[in-house]
Amino acid sequence: MRGRFDSVSLFYLLRCLPGSFPTEASHVLAPGGVVCGATILGRAAPHNWFGRTLVDVYSRRGVFGNASDTKNNPERALRAAFAEVTVEQVGVVVLFSARKPSPARL
Fold first, then answer.
1. Domain count of the chain?
2. Are residues 105 and 27 in contact, defined by beta-carbon separation less than 8 angstroms?
3. pLDDT tens for residues 3-18?
């Protein structure tokens, strides 16, 4: 399946996955392909009271795995796997895109 897709989108999925930011999308991108998405940040983000409550409740129940996520988590993982990375925090959400998988990841 290597190199078959021009784009991989990961919108509002990552908060539901336990563990570190997955970068396996780099394996399935065609040359010139892009991975993009958005994720909700954890407790350190400027959530309102309802958002903080949801992060806490869903984290305790195992629905969310993002309690400790900050902007640095996806940025660090993407920079380790891709040559071109854009990460921007907007409120409690991080928007990201990445191109050109690093040669070590191919």
1. 1
2. yes
3. 688 998 888 876 666 6
